[in-house]
Design a protein that fits this description.
This protein is of the alpha/beta class. Helix 3 crosses helix 4. The chain contains six helices and eleven strands.
Length: 285
């Protein structure tokens, strides 16, 4: 963010966002960053139900980057976490995006069950269109893939009923059929296409189906790219670190969230590299 002189990173999503906040806070403190923390209470309208509205806002304001007394640098970088299960029409532009919102990272997948994929497609298409047409759109838009659940059901996802993968076992179990009922990535790719955007995978460092001109054709416009942060494959390994036998949330170890920060870093580095290529091309022309 410093290379681009960016000041604000927004993370929006369901209850897992609270754990992401704790993981980021712990890791930044462990690395020697100095910061201020602000937590604001329930901001949602309870009449609209649990899935709607902003439940909470948590802000980390980084004030000093670690280093020796001579190399330490004073900064003012904000990482703002919004806990919201489903985005609602107008809420992003009205309540979240503002001057200097440079990076927007979201995930609302867990609250769209496998039987709600048409609604997930509709909701994510609308969200992406809202982000790209906002009065002050972010410079980068990223989707954090949902974390794995480990319920005793096909694919590990929560289901109020259905066959048990391990008969007679209570609590969290390893995922025995990893692909069962998990369609979120493909649906998000479809939503990205519907919104007129490119789906960008950090493992590929380029478009999902790159044109003949190669990864340098990756659009630098914030309205063209959705940067994918994989997480389900990694988190699927940890059925034994859920809290109190509840198979969605994990214990608050920052190590679990390192792949997310790495995914963010890869995308930002790639963005900076491509922007440098674009600037060099402008000079040559």
């Amino acid at each position: 963010m410093q290379e681009q002189n960016w000041k604000t990173l927004v993370v929006a999503g369901d209850s897992m966002t609270r754990q992401t906040f704790a993981g980021f806070q712990c890791e930044l403190l462990r690395r020697g960053y100095e910061m201020k923390t602000k937590v604001e209470g329930d901001l949602a309208d309870p009449r609209k139900g649990l899935r709607y509205g902003i439940r909470q806002r948590k802000t980390l304001t980084l004030t000093k980057i670690p280093g020796s007394s001579k190399s330490s640098k004073m900064v003012d970088i904000k990482i703002i976490f919004y806990i919201m299960y489903w985005p609602t029409a107008g809420s992003i532009d009205q309540f979240i995006l503002g001057p200097g919102t440079d990076v927007y990272i979201f995930d609302h997948s867990l609250w769209y069950r496998h039987w709600e994929m048409p609604k997930f497609l509709e909701g994510m298409t609308a969200l992406l269109k809202q982000l790209t047409t906002a009065s002050m759109p972010p410079k980068m838009i990223m989707w954090r893939e949902q974390s794995a659940q480990h319920f005793n059901r096909p694919g590990g996802s929560y289901s109020p009923k259905g066959p048990e993968m391990v008969p007679g076992v209570d609590g969290c179990v390893p995922i025995h059929d990893y692909t069962a009922k998990y369609q979120h990535v493909q649906v998000m790719k479809n939503a990205t296409e519907r919104a007129g955007m490119n789906f960008v995978d950090p493992h590929q460092q380029q478009l999902e189906q790159p044109p003949a001109t190669g990864p340098s054709s990756l659009s630098l416009s914030n309205s063209k790219n959705l940067y994918f942060i994989p997480f389900r494959d990694f988190s699927s390994q940890f059925h034994d670190i859920h809290r109190d036998g509840e198979c969605t949330h994990y214990c608050s170890t920052p190590d679990l969230w390192l792949p997310i920060s790495r995914g963010i870093r890869i995308h930002m580095d790639n963005y900076n590299h491509l922007q440098g290529q674009n600037a060099a091309s402008d000079v040559r022309s």
